[in-house]
Amino acid sequence: MTRIIYRLTPKDLAVLEAMLMRRRASADAIVPMLERKLAESNIIPVGMVEPDIATLNSRVVFRINDGTPETRTLMLGDASAPVGFGLPLGTWRGLCLLGMRAGQSVVAERPDGSRERILLEDVAYQPEAKHQAARTAAQRPLGPRLVYSAAGDRWPLGGGGKIRQTEGDDPGPSAA
What we know:
The chain has helices at 10-25, 31-39, 92-97, 127-138, and strands spanning 6-8, 41-43, 59-64, 70-75, 86-88, 105-109, 115-125. The chain is of the alpha/beta class. The mean pLDDT is 80.
């Protein structure tokens, strides 16, 4: 991989660290790539992640070596996903895309020496951005909400401080 600064959420970081520990034990070929990813990453608090950053469970649009665009969801594993839907983080491409910003590209070198250029075109959906938008929309002041505000001598719709009867159905004190 060429040098690029990735942006990871604390959850993404924890997933990659756990993956690194498991893969080191089995001497997996992806270990050096995981180590570089962690070394070249900044950790961004969840509420401050830009919507164009590829995070876990993001739907991303990317190209491989100027090929046709592909759309996948970055996920831990693809056992429960329909074929062609998910892109596991345990794959070279999934690991490369995690933490990238839309418009960035990286050249990944595989263990066999081959290289492929991966361009992240767009982040079509990002769970952190969706949750942030929902939290912002749901924020409102706690406690009673003021529905009408007017000076003490002004009543809504021209009404006065007393209840008035405008109909003639009550004869009053003079009718006996």
